[in-house]
From TrEMBL:
The lineage of its organism: Bacteria, Pseudomonadati, Pseudomonadota, Alphaproteobacteria, Hyphomicrobiales. Gene3D superfamilies: SGNH hydrolase. It comes from Rhizobium laguerreae. SUPFAM superfamilies: SGNH hydrolase. Coiled coil: none annotated. It holds the Pfam family Lipase_GDSL. This is SGNH/GDSL hydrolase family protein. It comes from the Bacteria.
Amino acid sequence: MLIERRPVYGLVLFLACLLMLSAVRNGYADRPVPLKIVAFGTSLTARGGWQPALETELATCLQKPVKIESVAKSGETSLWALTQIDRVVAEQPDIILIELYANDATLHRFVSLAQSRKNIGDILDQLQQRLPQARIIVMAMNPFSGLRGLIRPFVDSYVSAHEAEAQKRGLEFVDHRPNWERLTPDDLATAIPDGVHPLPDIASKIIAPELVKRIAGNNCGE
């Protein structure tokens, strides 16, 4: 005995159409997928305060939502960062922004230049392997001064080592220091009162536009 199935199929199709129509009416079908960014670093990220400005400016430029999550901790080095790769991967980011040299370069953290270079190389290798579609950008942040600068006498060598490891893997490197150094000495001292951590509002004005330019390229008007 044959069972008539057509009415059942028709009902299923009708319900599917209703669900699709409801989704369109509620805007779900038209909502763009957000661009997901992970900022991976030290206190220059954890306390940086530049992420909201980057979200806003990049979203305006690209005409799509942008969401930035931070995997960052004050006072930590690239040794700590090696233990945080699972957290970065779990976010499934489209872009990863990395700054991990600043505390490696402090004399009292005892992370040698060779060890720092090996660590960032291992971090980049793991991220490339586990997130092959992600765009990875290694960064140099602001200059240091005062006591915070004195305890980092070879910081430029650490920056160069991280840059070299990025370039070896065909990854991008963004150096924010020249933009900071365009400020007058007095303005720079005001912007970075403790010699290492910029005021968030000024960091936003210097770091966010540079990253928008790098990430969006010519897709954003001047």
